[in-house]
Amino acid sequence: MGECAFRAVFTVENSDKDLIMKSFKTLEREMRFGRGFVNVSVINDSVVITVCAKDLTSLRSLVSGVVKSLYLIFRAVEIGGAD
């Protein structure tokens, strides 16, 4: 997919980089289709999640997936740390 008309970038700092990277790696296939994709990388000790899409509907769909995934990751860490 070469065209990226619409983009959203999330930067996650002070978090478990490995957990976020592994979680998004398992979601990679779900977050890639003909009109958009999600790329995850580590830059300057932060996780950078870039959402790229050809149209606003696809961007909205992918951003929604990223936000839900981040919420679940952070919630699982919170619950796991409550012991």
How helix-rich are the residues, as a percent range? 40-55%
Report how far apart the termini are.
44 Å
* Major beta-sheet overview: 4 strands, antiparallel
Please state the CA-atom Rg, rounded to the nearest Å.
13 Å
Give the structural class.
alpha+beta
What is the helix tally? 2
- Which H/E pattern describes the elements? EHEEEH
C-alpha geometry? globular
Uncertain runs: none
For the secondary structure, the number of strands is 4
Please list the strands of the largest sheet in the order they lie side by side.
Answer: 1-4-3-2
Quaternary organization = single chain
The overall pLDDT average reads 91
In what range is the share of β-strand residues?
25-35%
Please write out the topology:
Layout: E1 6-12, H1 17-27, E2 32-33, E3 36-43, E4 46-53, H2 56-80
Antiparallel strand pairs: 1-4, 2-3, 3-4
Write up this protein.
By secondary structure, the chain is an alpha+beta fold. It contains 2 helices and 4 strands, in the order βαβββα. Strands 1-4-3-2 form a 4-stranded antiparallel beta sheet. The mean pLDDT is 91.
